[in-house]
Amino acid sequence: MSQGNTGVTVEGVLAEACPMVEVLARVAGKWSVSILLAASRGPIRFTELERIIPGISRRMLTLNLRNLERDGLLVRTVYPTVPPKVEYTATPMALELRGTLDELTAWAERHRTAVHEARVAYDAGSD
Predict the structure, then answer these.
(1) Which domains does the chain have, with CATH numbers?
(2) For the segment 71-96, what is each residue's pLDDT rounded down to a tens digit?
(3) Of 4, 17, 86, 114, whose CB is crowded by the most CB atoms within 10 A?
């Protein structure tokens, strides 16, 4: 029996995988995990996020918030006060992701020492 052309192309596989890879990159990004975990606890303001996420710049926080909002993971609510009050809330889709993010961060915490030791050993052997 001939294998022939099955109609599956590399381009087709990549086109199908790209949206999935893009979504995974967004939700597992360096800052996204912290933002989503914080927002899943309830509405949170920009300044609160800035304070609880060590090392994030205002610009990077703004970009990540916009992208997560664009992807339907956060809702931005502006209250008509002086000065304006803005809160971010996790959507049901983001809340569904919460358990997975909790497991991922717990795994990272459990294995961070082992990963560090593996890096040190690898780096020592690659001289």
Answers:
(1) 11-125 (1.10.10.10)
(2) 999 999 999 999 889 999 999 999 99
(3) 86
